[in-house]
Amino acid sequence: MTLSKEEENYVRLSLLLTGISPRAVRILFDGTFQPSSLEKTIKQNYNKLSELKQRKQINSPQWSLMFPAVQGQTGTPDSTTFDVTLMITLLRNCSKLTAPRNGYDDMPGPNEMTPAADLARIKYYRNYLAHASENKITANFFKTAWDEISSAVLRLGNQQLKDECDELRYKVLDQSNTDILKEIEASKEEIKNLQFEFDTFQEQMTNNMENWHFKIPRNVKIQFASETSLKVEWEPPEHTDHLQSYKVYWKKTTPDAAENCKDVPKEENCTTLDGLTEMTNYWIRISAYSLHMQASSPQQSFRTTKGTNSAGIHLLSNVGSVVLGGGSIHFNIGGLPPQEIQGNINLSSHTLSMNQQNQLPLNQFNTRMPICPSDNIATSSGESQRKRIKMDD
After folding, report:
1. Which stretches are annotated as coiled coil (predicted)?
2. Are 23 and 143 in a shared domain?
């Protein structure tokens, strides 16, 4: 296969942007984020990076490279595994680089020679090449683009990389280089097919999402089973058609904690999570799996206790009323047998209504309120049970 001059320009520019310029970006990256402290830097920016992931500016494979422990992998983050897109994303969001005058998404002016401006140049031409309608580059565009990119490579990297740029610009392309064009054409066709499949799947998911809220597990309750285990209960979704199974997910609330999963048959609506760490906060959620769909309950936090005599209930959905008066708090817990509410109730994440006017966090009172059988609680499981708790004056 003989390439035209314009096709050669396309291949050379592709090699420059995929083979040489990423190494220049990595030199800047490693100089900004020292490899020995890269893991610490990434963890310090966890919240910001999580927001970028939610906005689809960081994808799942990139996230796994930054937080390998979350995916059950070993090792620490290594910039040599980061693609140029991820490195630029981290540099623009987690470093002290001054952004170009027009931002990172537009071509910077010819007089801007800062590292951030050079990142924007490389990003601009990578996007241009990725969205080119045909695999050809005109001579004028090629000259301008090459001069811009190779100069950026020199400023970000070093003279050795610039020499490689000059060699690539004029060297004779062998068969392996010309085969790149065939691979690019095949890749673009494959991307079109994947896009069609994705669009079809997305349309199907959109139809399913119309009934999504009817497929979420309901009334999730979390109780102490022991100091290292929790009992999780729920009601089936309102719509159980095509329901296949449940999955219970839990993990510690620390940023780098790995998420655990337990399968539960569709016929069961409770399970016990064993092997937990006492006095530790956990995130817990339940997903109902059906055909082409996963519907999850809202994520809830719960703290394990210490000692074998504690028992409690996490959700206060059964609280019927709360009344203030005479320096005491009175509240009703409906439908709970006495043995289910012995121990402590954690109210730290709830809000207490005062005379339907003021809202006061319960953690300003006693956030763990002891309840004992001797506290004159009704024994009928169908009746409301009243508990009087003294407040500090």
Report:
1. 177-204
2. yes
**Do 223 and 340 fall within a single domain?**
no
Q: Say if residue 108 is in the same domain as residue 179.
A: yes
**135-139, 214-218, 328-332: least confidently modelled range:** 328-332
Residue with tokens 């927001």: 51
Q: Are 79 and 30 in contact (CB under 8 A)?
A: yes
User: Does 290 share its domain with 332?
Assistant: no
Say whether both 37 and 142 belong to one domain.
yes
Residues 6+ apart with CB under 8 A from 145: 13, 125, 128, 137
How many degrees, rounded to 5, is the angle at CA 298 between CA 355 and CA 340?
Answer: 65
Give me the domain span that covers residue 226: 216-303
- Same domain membership, residue 172 and residue 41: yes
- List, for residues 331-342, the tens digit of each pLDDT value: 444 444 433 333
> Is there a single domain that holds both residue 168 and residue 229?
no
Bridge partner list, 331: 322, 387
pLDDT in tens, 364-389: 433 344 443 333 333 333 333 444 34
Give the whole-number percent of the chain exceeding pLDDT 70.
65
**CA dihedral sign, ordered 130, 134, 135, 137:** negative
Q: Which residue, 324, 305, 302, is CA-closest to 314?
A: 302
Specify whether 98 is located in the same domain as 19. Answer: yes
What pTM value is reported for the model? Answer: 0.49
The residue among 189, 177, 188 whose CA lies nearest residue 16 is 177
